Amino acid sequence: MFHIHRLALSGYEKLVNSLGANPIALLAEVGISQAQLRETNVYLPLTGVADLLELTAQRCKEPLFGTRLATVQGFQMFGELGISTSQQSSVLASLNYTRDHGNLIVLGMRTKRYQCGNLTEIQITFDFDNDLGLGQVTQLNVVKLYQLVKYLAQASDNQLTLLLRQAKPVGTLWQWDWLKNYVNFNSAVDGIRFPSSWLEKQPQSDTHALQSLLTDRVQLLQSKYPNNLEKRITHTIAHLLPSGECSISLVAKALELHPRTLQEQLQRKGLTFTQLLQQTRLQIAKQKLQRSNQSITELALSLGYADIAVFSRNFKKWTGHTPTQFRCKE
Predict the structure, then answer these.
(1) What does each C-alpha distance from 31 to 7, 46, 51, 247, 304 come to in angstroms?
(2) Could you read off the pLDDT of 51-72 as tens digits, one per residue?
(3) Over 60: is that where the pLDDT of 211 sits?
């Protein structure tokens, strides 16, 4: 089943309320609960989200709803993945990283990069059709791609073009005086276009954003587990794993501890950071293999493994079974 991270609906309820509609009723209509939007690492059916955005656009009489939702979300919708993307060596490397790990945000959408003279074009396509259409979910993802490249290249709007195959909606459009300079409706493809020279740029990197993201989550964990350091560590590890950055120093920094202090506190409990990292990976892997149809490749990437074979070997060492055998056994 194709899926999209619940981060894709960040800000949805507030925006729908501002447009005079009932977000809870709309969510229920497509089988998405309000509680799912509150969980940290939940994936939603991509077809359900596509239906939701189409229904919302109709009920709110807002043909640019997908664009508006992407705009209020900003770059941080990408979470840890977006921050890791910005830490690559070049904009090209960042885009390749996003392509290789993009299924951690959305599975069922593909991106391809083309050279068009001095311009680069990134096109998006979906692996499915939808009865209610894909116009709004396409807007959402094209604008997110636009925001990502703009952020990485530290570029101005007038050097980027959004390409949408859908026809220009009739009537007065939201912020059209601004959008008309950057959006091409009736395009042959869905995607974005920008100067190829940007690919060689060193991407903008925001390490403070990662720290802020982790600090917010750790504060929640401290209120939930005030006397359980082990729980706070494992939750922090679980959030960091998809980014590929999960060192003891980064976890300690998020918990506002010196790495040596963290090690000492774990030693007093007879634990090591490596043990907690392994336990967290194993627990997540077992849950995903038992309760979801997520592929082994996607699972390995979400656990911070760049090499699928290494994940499979480790899992067999831990359980005595390969991931595929464990899934079939369950």
Answers:
(1) 17, 12, 10, 38, 31
(2) 999 999 999 999 999 999 999 8
(3) no
User: Does the pLDDT at position 278 exceed 80?
Assistant: yes
Q: pLDDT averaged over the chain?
A: 85
Q: CB within 8 A of 23, min separation 6: which ones?
A: 12, 13, 16, 17, 56
Task: State the Cα–Cα distance between residues 189 and 38, nearest whole angstrom.
Answer: 34
Structure tokens at 288: 């995903």
Q: Is 87 helix (H, G, I), strand (E, B) or coil?
A: coil
Among 158, 179, 200, identify where a domain stops: 200
Q: What is the pLDDT of residues 135-178, one digit of tens each?
A: 999 999 999 999 889 888 888 767 899 999 999 999 899 999 98
DSSP run (H or E) holding 123: strand 119-126
Q: Which residues contact 165 (CB under 8 A, 6 or more apart)?
A: 138, 186, 187, 188, 189, 190
pTM of the model: 0.69
Is 74 in the same domain as 145?
yes
pLDDT above 90 (res 106): no
Verify that 191 and 213 share a domain, yes or no. no
Please say which residue of 156, 179, 200 terminates a domain: 200
As a whole number of angstroms, the distance between CA 218 and CA 249 comes to 15
Examine the pLDDT at 215 and tell me if it is beyond 70: no
Measured CA to CA, the distance from residue 304 to residue 185 in angstroms comes to 38
127: amino acid identity, one letter: D
Residue 4, pLDDT > 90, answer: no
Q: Are residues 177 and 274 in the same domain?
A: no
My answer on whether 216 and 194 are in the same domain is no
* 101 CB-side CA count, 13 A: 26
Cα 212 to Cα 35, 206, 249, 255, 256, distances in angstroms:
24, 10, 16, 11, 12
Count structural domains, the chain. 2
Expressed as residue numbers, the domain containing 144 is: 3-200
Q: Cβ(150)–Cβ(160) under 8 Å?
A: yes
State the Cα–Cα distance between residues 240 and 195, nearest whole angstrom.
33
One domain for residues 64 and 156? yes
Residue 181 contacts residue 158 (beta carbons within 8 Å): yes
